[in-house]
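Handout, tutorial session.
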Amino acid sequence: MSQRVAIVTGGIGGLGSAICRKLAQSGRTVIAADLDARAERIAAFREEMADLGERVAFEPLNVADEQSCSDLVARVLASHGHIDVLVNAAGITRDTTLRKMTTAQWTDLMRVNLDGVFFMTRAVIDGMCDQGFGRIVNISSVNGQTGQFGQTNYSASKAGLHGFTMALSREVARKGVTVNSVSPGYCRTAMVMAIPENIRNQIVNQIPVGRIGEPEDIARAVEFLTADDAGFLTGVNLPVNGGLFISF
């Protein structure tokens, strides 16, 4: 069996970079796909991944642009021959109450958080089905399960993401392709750490395990769902939230 090839969108973000590292450590060749507008962040990411050698590479991608997604997949197929794992981790927030939300705040977020998943997944799904193996993991959110004040757009996109997961999992299950979601709670990312400390402390007080998550907590869940022997897990939403929201 040749080495598995994984694409991680939003790959240089807080969660994305942890996922890239974990997948590379588990033996995958990883393509971190993200916007190329942040030269300093890209340089820092490459330095962070230097110990992994050629197992992690950066490729430019705008998930909100259909052609950009198609071009990325074509480049990866040309250089590696196959794509085995897709982690849709790219996402943005545009927080405000619905009464104040502009059409642009709604559509810009949906273009990244939902359209981007459609563009990327559609671009890889035929190849995965043809080769009889694929692992797709969509990064949803606890706020897609519970809703959150000021996040009607974000919560709707993340809830919709798992609806997409469940439907697609039924379409491709017989082809050896699994499709699952991971719903992180509050994790130590730039977005969460930008929350004022007093509010962050209030959030921690509501989490049964008594802390916010680490990006590695999410990466571990993604690695589990993308393993070769995880073929009987599909259509699953795996909450990784420290017990903040518990259901079955």
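The second record follows below. Compare its token runs with those of the first.
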Amino acid sequence: MWQQWTTWLQEWTDVPGEIYGNSFEQGALALGVLVGTLVLYALGRLILPRLARPPKDAATDQGPPLLTLLVRSTSLLVWFFLALFLASLLLTLPDRLIALVQGVAVIGVLLQGAIWGAVLVNYGVNRFGALRREHDASAYTTVSALGVLAKLGLWSVVLLLILANLGVDVTAMVAGLGVGGIAVALAAQNILGDLFASLSIVLDKPFVLGDFIIVDEMLGTVEKIGLKTTRLRSLSGEQLVVANNDLLQSRIRNMKRMTERRVVFHFGVTYQTPLDQLRAIPELVRQIVQTCEATRFDRAHFQEYGESALVFEVVYYVSPADFAVYMDVQQQINFALYEAFERHGIEFAYPTRTLFLHTNGTRPTDAS
């Protein structure tokens, strides 16, 4: 039946029996393979993403399904060269043309494989981030950096394979690049310094995404750790961009890793305060601090004779170390201390100055 159909088609189109040594049946079959492969590509673009679409009640915060991403990243040009290669296997073609078609098809397949590989790496990093970012930010940072290195290595291997397929002596080229790489490294030592600093940050983890850090006079929340720079979001809202190498050469204070916050505050009472009330103040402060939640009292002492006050120093700890929690606790202590002093008749000191006046040999009198 196939032969009858091809004979009828040949007579209807008035095509010669052979074209460059290929029969009409070979040409028709090769054309069918070419068209069928392209139709398969079109059907895949239309149908597969719909089949892989998540249900309406499923969570969609993890992005499109993997199959949809792979289909979307498939290049029509690469698919066409692949179809052309498959069709050429059914024909008798000159050796140079066969080599050309095969070379183009291999390069296209390698490029498409690299694109799919990059999509797989991004998909894995995003999935891991959606599952672990809030609970393990350091692991997400490490996986993100490894993903960048994996894509860099993948494209490097694909580039070498393409050059080898084009007949380039890859071994000699790699040796030449090794010598030239030294010169490039010297010229780009600042960039390479930031790159290695980025790897050091990822592996050593002095901070991770979401940490609040203080670097010299800059402070903010870590938003992104890149290959060259790290981005912080300051308290006033602007973004701070700092080179990774500068970060590692600075003194970094990671405030998020505080297990508890040590608080030291001072207050002063007047010099007219009786001795028995002075002795009672440390115990009074201890009771106030211990009645507050999330606090651990350390000490309260009459520290020194100030210029215009008798100064007390109080030390306690707040857990958790969140700044808002600390301010709430300190406010509660201040209110309670004011109320207790008012109840016991103890006066807070404020800056005052006493002048002693001598008049014609009489005893000095004071005037405040």
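Points raised in discussion: The longest strand covers residues 295-305.
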